[in-house]
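User: Fold this; tokens only.

Assistant: Input:
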Amino acid sequence: EILGDKDLQAKVAKVKITPADATSRINLIKAVQESRTVWQAEKGQSEDATIAKDNAMAKMDDWMDDFYAMAKLALAEHPQYLEALGIVVKRKLKRQRHYIKRRIPPQDSPFFTSI
């Protein structure tokens, strides 16, 4: 608008804005608008890629659940192989018998009885 209107050019000349300044500012505004359009398109593509990635990860997670279940069945006799796959195996510990040391009273004690 400013480039074709002499009256408007005279008004903005009072604040030291030349037609060349106005042209450069208009070009900057157009560049920003174009950049925003490109950014919005890339943002949409990024969101689509994120949705596709999340769907693929969900499918892979389901597959891995099945894989781990089959591995637990197939390798039940070999827990070290399961651990190599990253499956934590709870081992049954043998019961350890705790023997209580009995304190034998001295022979001169009133609790000591001889048979």
